[in-house]
Amino acid sequence: MTSLKKKSLTGLVWDFVGKLGLQGVGFFVSIILARILLPEDFGLLAIITVFINLANVFLDFGFSTALVQRNTVTKEHYASVFFMNVIMGVFLGGLVFFSAPLVASFYEKEVLTNLIRVMSFSFVINSFGNVTRAHLRRIMNFKIISVANIISAFISGFIAVFMAYSGYGVWSLVVQILVSEILNNILIFVLSKFRFKLVFSLKAVKELWGFGSKIFLTGVLDTIFINLDSLIIGKILNPATLGYYYRSKSLENFSFRYTASTLSNILLPSLSTINNEPIVYKNTVLKLFKIISFVSFLACGVFLVGAHEIILLLFSDKWEPSVRIFQIIIFGAFAPQIFNLFYNILLSKGLSGLYLKINVFSKVLFFTNFIFLFYADLNSYLIGFICAQIIVFFTGLIVVSKKLNFKNELFYISIKNMVIYLVSIFIIFTLKQYVYLQILHIDLLISSITFLIVFLTFYFMFMKKDLILMVKEIKEVLNIKNG
What we know:
Layout: H1 3-36, H2 39-60, H3 63-69, H4 75-107, H5 112-119, H6 122-127, H7 130-138, H8 142-165, H9 171-192, H10 202-236, H11 239-257, H12 260-265, H13 267-272, H14 278-305, H15 307-315, H16 322-331, H17 334-348, H18 352-369, H19 371-375, H20 378-403, H21 409-432, H22 440-462, H23 464-482
């Protein structure tokens, strides 16, 4: 096995372990907090997060991704980006701090003023660690990132739970975020031992800007449209409804945080190194596409059929309005997970401009879909959003197939996966109408196991070769880990 593959798989294992630990701690803490706090508290946090995320995209300008992707990077590049990050961190922190009363007035929630002002310090905090994280991603050292994430999540989570029990409400969520960011950046700095001279070079910035500018513009579009729904829901509906929506989105993110997305996170460095080997590159992409598709559809199905039981078991009956929202969201969640692969392919080929065009097209669809929020209801908006995601997925599939000369191969694989997925879901929901014991943990166990059996049976019948391929890949990962 090549050193590249060993390094990539080692990175995959550490990224998986890191995300498993991070999300395990974070999810356990969120369960406790959801049982103590009210949906309105999470709705207020979602409003705060909207404005923090919108401003945060200007902190880095896409330079971190450029540092990972560029063939040759010097410490001068790192130092110059560091200077820009810190300057922007201070500027954005001040801007958000003094704009807080305007946001509070817009939502007619005075408590938002102080909450947003405290959160504004996150820009300065994060500006010191972005460059070091980019360096660790570039050399595929996910071990340090994982350790820092888990430790900071555990300590900040403990503090948040203590504050929630003590009656601090939404403040426990805000403090949790800030403490986590402070600890994470300190640990990354200490453990990485990556140092550079504090020099600034405009030339170095210009060299990175050619690639980073397109990533920045894409990031602006992504951030606006990812957060625009929360901004509108919080305004035209109410914080409680936004809290239900926020909880459903968080659960969806958790569902895929250490499944398909783990593979995608290490693809940019790996694929970039085999750009000059077209046959190897094409075979690698095909293999990854099959594996990520299988994992994505399988995970979506398990969470979809067990949505009702999962939410009630984890968060209690007061979160039941989140069930239908989560089911609609998770139904089409396979599309963005697989599209992450297309994203990494385009970046590794240096086609950031093409990705920007696809991104603009997708945002036009998503923006049009916001009509449902104003003139229909939340469920109609979510269904429209899923349809838009699937359209964008097939657009990316067509573009990548054309660039890599796959013809119709990726399309046929996707159609087979979707049919197996839909038929399996239909069978399970039909069975649940007749076999429903109203004992949550038993019903969840039955529906999940039954879906796995049905899904894997269909996969073995119609996509046997792909299933065997994935088993072999898993064995290789295990052999490397044991070796």
